[in-house]
Amino acid sequence: MNQEKHWVSIWGNAVSVAENRPEQYAKDLTIRYPMKSPFQGESIRITFDNYCGTEEVEINQVTVRVGDEFYPVFLSGNRTMRIPAKGTIVTDPLELRIEVGDWIEISFYLKEFTQMRSVVFASGPLTYGSYAKGNQTTTKEFDIQTSRPTHLFYFLSNVSVLTEKENRALVCYGDSITAQDWPDYLKLRCTREGFTKTSVIRRATSGSRILREYQCFTYESYGLKGSKRFSHEVPTDGADAVLIQQGINDIIHPVGEEVNIYRPMSDLPTIEELIDGLKSYIYEAKEMGYRVYVGTLLPMGGWRTDAPFRQELRHAFNEFIRTTKLLDGVVDFDQALRDPKNPDWFLPQYDSGDHLHPSKEGYERMAEIIPIELLR
């Protein structure tokens, strides 16, 4: 490898557990995901992840498209790639000149019945994909009659390019709030403001908690707990910092078995337990050599399980985040999006309407307050 260059991730997602449905297998399907490169590069490599799968996955063909050209991708010289259950593979590097702003499409074909269990939802103005019937890995445009758009990302968890030493990645780790739009708005901000050396990599799974996970068939898709996620997702090519925004689901999920048998109040953490869970992230990230930033938990006034004891827990957690000396910095999302006259609630323009997730304007605001020191 060129010693003057290194591998840096230009695109990434977490991998979580698919919702249990009868149709959890697919066959004769091409899946395609586009992405925009923030960097120049001279090679590209792709990570496919079956961390949540219980069966081997066979990918029969992978292509990378840049412009009008399709390029075949190999694993140990083979077109067919097999990902073991709970395993991960990284493809052979593909020598390919990539320019700043190039759109890259990753397409892969699943010929035989495939367990579609390792997946994550993500959204944003730069985050989307599609799938089509048959092997269309070298088809420029999918036929709308035999394809559909999707915001579900199967197996593909990372794309890296071999690029200049000064280029680096920032990892954004969290739950559904991070799985939604603000990391994309942060990418757009980097382009707009000239932070051309930083890629923004999302590692987020909807419904996930720091301390707990559901074992039941009904709620398994709410994702893995932090002790299973963090060490698997956060190590990222070229990354030197992580921004963590998680904890609200630990607070809002437990409702009591009389309301929902799967969500006992015993799952509600104490503030000490929640802080210890966050500390475990901080220590682990420091061991990776990362700078660590944490975002405060957003307002939740009006959410369907909102209650004074939950707000007290959120306030105590945010107070720890704001005052601890363990961090390299804090991003005070709570202060930026709350209503000054009613601080447990969003400002109306920042509320999506469910009183938990921000609106488009709220996500844009989150991206705008990320400190410059994280983007340089």
Describe what you observe in this structure:
This protein is of the alpha+beta class and 376 residues long. It contains 8 helices and 25 strands. It has helices spanning 176-179, 182-193, 226-233, 248-252, 271-287, 308-323, 333-337, 360-368, and strands spanning 5-12, 16-17, 25-26, 29-36, 41-49, 57-59, 61-66, 69-72, 81-83, 88-90, 94-98, 103-110, 114-115, 118-121, 129-133, 147-150, 152-154, 156-164, 168-174, 198-204, 239-245, 291-295, 329-331, 338-339, 342-346. The protein has a 6-stranded antiparallel beta sheet with strand order 8-7-12-4-15-16, with no helix packed on it. Strands 1, 5, 10, 11 and 18 form a 5-stranded antiparallel beta sheet that branches. Strands 20-19-21-22-23 form a 5-stranded parallel beta sheet. Helix 2 packs across helix 8 and helix 3 runs parallel beside helix 5. The protein is globular, with a radius of gyration of 21 Å. The two termini are 25 Å apart.
Tell me how many strands there are.
25
Runs in which pLDDT lies below 50 for 5 or more consecutive residues are none
Overall radius of gyration:
21 Å
Kindly state the percentage of residues in helix.
Answer: 10-25%
What's the overall average pLDDT, rounded?
A: 97
> How would you describe the shape?
globular
Distance between the termini: 25 Å
Structural class: alpha+beta
- % residues in beta strands: 25-35%
Q: Numbering strands along the chain, what is their spatial order in the largest sheet? A: 8-7-12-4-15-16
**What can be said about the biggest beta sheet?**
6 strands, antiparallel
* Number of helices, where a helix is a run of at least 4 consecutive DSSP H or I residues: 8
